[in-house]
Design brief:
The protein has about 70 residues and is of the alpha+beta class. It contains two helices and three strands. The N and C termini lie far apart (about 65 Å). The relative contact order is 0.13.
Length: about 70
């Protein structure tokens, strides 16, 4: 490896808006983020399905009949 061309890799703190703090290593110091795995809707299970033009309902009606037929 060449001397003097690599950035310094040191301990850093990643802070989320929700208050979650993650200790890790990075070339940057004190990173601030808006969303993390503790507050992201997909990770927390509080994801909302946005229904445009009734597509979700149409899908449920279409495949609900197939589920009842299997039983």
């Amino acid at each position: 490896m060449k001397e003097g061309i690599h950035p310094e890799y040191s301990e850093t703190t990643i802070t989320c808006v929700c208050g979650n703090v993650i200790e890790t290593k990075s070339t940057r110091k004190d990173i601030k983020i808006e969303i993390c795995s503790q507050c992201h809707p997909f990770m927390t299970g509080k994801q909302k399905i946005i229904d445009t033009a009734g597509r979700v309902e149409r899908f449920k009606r279409k495949y609900a009949a197939g589920e009842e037929a299997k039983k």
